[in-house]
Amino acid sequence: MAFRFSPADRPPNVVLVYIDDLGFGDLGRTGAVGYTTPNFDDMASKGMFLSQYYTPQAVCTASRAGLLTGCYPNRLGFAGATDHSAKTGINAEEETIAELLKAKGYATAAFGKWHLGFQKQFLPPHHGFDEYFGIPYSNDMWPNHPVNKNYYPPLPLIEGDEVVATNPDQSQFTTWFTERTINFIKKNKDKPFFAYLAHPMPHVPLFVSDKFKGKSQQGLYGDVIMELDWSIGQIRKTLRELKLDGNTLLIVTSDNGPWLSYGNHAGSAGGFREGKGTTFEGGHRVPCIVEWTGVVPAGVVSNNLAAGMDMLPTIVEATGASLPKKKIDGVSLLANLKGNLSVKPRETFLFYYRRNNLEAVRHGDWKLVFPHPGRTNEGFKPGKDGQPGGGNENFNHQGGLYDLRRDPGERYNVQFDFPEVTAELMKIADEARKDLGDDLTGSPGQNRRPIGRVTE
């Protein structure tokens, strides 16, 4: 089917940038020191910063599943971070942002890290993307892993759905994937397009090109962030030069918080508790900046609750595309993005981790954390120069009720001071357990859907 759009009725382009392991405190505007992020900061000054944005889950694969489908990852059977041994991936019956926009005539492309299954049937060209160039899973899943040496095979670099190289030069990743995104934008400047740029950095192992090597005062990690900032600048510059910035929704965010055990090769959670791999704020609350010249008001900070699953319905409303046929969990943030902050599209967020553990619930400013086994890095010596430090993967977290307005660090349990709030959040948790299940209480859930499985 051929689509033709006049300039007057052309829907907006969408560029969605997903950065791996970027912490809330890793930008200049959120407190980073030893390097600058002028492009991230300028984007926020000309767009909107979402201060209460949560990634769908605090780990790679699950987070990406939630972003691209608008669902809690566990609704679709996703948990954790899959590797080369997995026989699962995104189910063909689930509809991604790319599939919804492609049905409306958009050109679509994905560049960078995928991580929703590495077999052909799971790769981007089979889920709505016209083009793909990148790696199928995390960049540490290769023979040089610092702990599991020789467990992983050579890291594949994929074009379309074919491997074109193995163990590619990771110092070129940020440059390659940025340049591919820019070329895609230029090639499709006269029609609506959706570009999904999923940077593998600053996930360890860290690599940076010669352009930024040694440029920061924070070592290799700072260099990597500076190059990612350059990437954002190149994309924004291209949109301005092509006069597309007024008709392009640009979203930049992270898949989860920093991997704290890697010490000086990890980012900053900005003072929030814990980091990646936990349901505390440091694992879930990450930077999110949205720019759309002339539509999103400049220099606004939204303190409304938002989540990665909300990007799909937001993009659908902005573009006039259709929502997926199956139930999703996201809500449109478009009214907020246009400046109406009195509207609160999202009031509740469910914090799931491991296979299907409901570890916490947020409603309004209140967060109820349930007792659960989980990761902690507190009290352990961090790693250095690419080697992980200590930590406990099965620490017995006691839980509690936290007022995130006064206590975003989740340090002061007020559960027994506010029994009515605790009861309200418990009701929300009980409904979630009926819907999505909860391994901590032995609840299977009624509305979970099957993950995709290898058919070859």
From TrEMBL:
Q: Outline the extent of the Sulfatase N-terminal domain.
A: 12-320
Q: Which InterPro entries match?
A: Alkaline_phosphatase_core_sf (IPR017850), Sulfatase (IPR050738), Sulfatase_N (IPR000917)
For the keyword Electron transport, the answer is: no
One GO MF term attached to the UniProt entry: transferase activity
UniProt keyword annotation of RNA-binding present: no
Q: Which Pfam families match?
A: Sulfatase (PF00884), Sulfatase_C (PF14707)
Keywords of the record, alphabetical order, are: Hydrolase, Transferase
Q: Where is this region: Disordered?
A: 374-401, 434-456
Concerning its family, UniProt says: Belongs to the sulfatase family.
Protein name, as recorded: Sulfatase-like hydrolase/transferase
Q: Which organism is it from?
A: Salmonirosea aquatica
